[in-house]
Each structure stands twice: as structure tokens, then as C-alpha cells.
Amino acid sequence: SVTLLESGLIGQQASGTNFGNVRRQGRPLAQLPLANRASAIWRTMNRLLGADVEYLEAGHLRVCYRHRPDIVGEFEAYADAARPLGLDLQILSGDMLYERFPFLGKDVLAGSYSPHDGHANPRVVAPAFARAAGRIGACIHENTRIVRAEKVGADFQATSADGRVFRAPALLVASGAWGNLLSTQFGEPVPLSSWGPTMSVTEPVSYAIRPSVGVFTPEEVESVYFRQIPRGNVIIGGSTKGAAYTDERRAPVLPRNVLSQLTHITRLAPALARLHIIRVWSGVEGYLPDGLPVMGPSGRASGLYYAFGFSGSGFQIGPGVGETMAELIDTGATSIAMAPYRIGRFGA
User: Fold this and answer.
1) Which of 23, 44, 105, 272 is deepest in the core (most CB within 10 A)?
2) pTM for this entry
3) In whole angstroms, what is the distance from residue 248 CA to residue 242 CA?
């Protein structure tokens, strides 16, 4: 049996406040087998969960600007390396790019298009998973903040802030930006930092843009992205992140970050300048220095596992992570290479 201890409400933090990108493109090559595993689940997710998670396999377009022509070579090299790993990308430029995606601004030089990536609604995905898990016997406790975790004899014991105690022979720490608080209790601290993405949504307009679109650049301020949903709203993310406070469990939205985002999104797609923003939000995300999550078994306690610190890129691979961790905990092995994600890489 499985017991899920949720500190707040299901999907209240990064799982529900992120952009909703379901993209394999741009991930480290070693992560593509995990991303491919997740993609197979996304394609059957409505049936699997018995709910519409608004998944659209509408493609993902990654572009670069004219003042960074060297990135075109990076696009081509990545496409060549990713193809044997099951990710087919199309490199577009010039008239071919603008004929296919006429909404792009004239500063865009080239694009890498992944036709089988897409996007979904993060507000509904995690709650749908929770409902489906509950239907097959999982016991879910919301508003249960764990303050102490330890191994007592053969079992693990987790104590909540209100004094409840839970016991199990195996423990998976999947607590996002708060993961280090529990891993440290087992002598495995990690350099986890917290940031809040800047997110916006516009008024609805005619549905015209199917793929999610983003800028690939070394400059965070330029790194904006957007997607349109069939209802017509355009969801916008990226540019400068804001501070996030794990003790307060909140990430305030800074007006200057919203203005920066809007400046750069209209460079990417000028027509978006005519739309009204109707809501902005953020959430608490956990980041590790190398951008990779901590995932896999503890190096210190048998039966202890981790899956946290997805550094703003966990939404697409989430279903694959869940399946992989379940396989690892149940059988002791998995076909997914886990070495890049081991907690010991930080010297724990």
C-alpha cells in the first residue's frame, strides 16, 4: 500500500504553478530515455487518469535570435545527437521558418521544431493523479507537513507538525524545494535553492498558435516562452525569476519581472503586445547547481529514496519519474540510468 503525505494541497506548489511545457527538446541527452518514457505516458494520460488534463501534442519550437548565430550550430549538433535517442527535430530558418510560423518577430534567426512534444494544464494534472491513485487504494493526507523523518528499526517514521506519526518500510522524499530539509536529516544535504518563475496569462483571443514556443539563449532575461490553449488564452513564462520563500511557502510576483517578461515576449511574437494580461502568478521551485534532480536511492539508508530538485524542468518527465521510482522501489532495479541523479554527487 502507498501513503502520500502532502504538506499543503495537491498541486499547490511547482507541480501546479509551472508553465505546462511537455517538451523533450533541450533536455540533457542522458535524460532523453526518461523523457521518452514520460511521453508515452502523456499520450495515454486521459485514459489512465480518467480525466482530461488538456494535453496537446502540438509541437515545441525553440528559437534563437540573430545576434546569437552560433546557437544555430548548437541546434544542429543537438538534433544529430538526439535522433538516435528517439527525438526527431527539424531545424528551420529563413523563409521556411516564417512561412510555417508567421507570428515570429524579425529578430528570430532560426528554430528547432519538435513535432511530438506539446503542453498540458498543470492546474489539473497533479489533482487528477491524486484522485486516480485514491481510487486504487492510495491513502492521501493533505495539509500534513512533515517535520521529522528517521529510520527506527526496519521501518521509517515520519512525524507531522501536528504530532501525527506515519510508518512504512520504504520512504520516498519527493518534496520539491523542501527536499533538502528531509535529506539533511539522513545526513545527505544538497545545495538546493528556491526561486519563483514569473507567469502570466492573457485574455482569450482566436486560437491560432498550436506549438509552445521559447527562446534559447544564455541570458535569463531573454529566455521567454508562451503557449496558446484552445480556449484562446496565451500563457507566458520566463525572463527573470523572483525570490521564493520556503518558510512562508510563497513566491511573490514582482512587477518589474512581469514588465521584463512582456518586453521580451513581444520581441519573440510582436502580436502579443496587443493582448491584455488578466492574471500573474508564481510558485516555489527547487533548483540544484547542475540543473539535474536528485533521484534514486539514498547513499546512507536502505529503503530511502529521493526525487526532488527538478530545477524548473520536472513537469514533462514527472510521469516517467513516478513510474521509474515505483519500479526501483518495487524491484530494486530500473532500465533508466540513475547515475547522473545520485544524491552523492554533491559530496553527501
Assistant:
1) 23
2) 0.95
3) 14
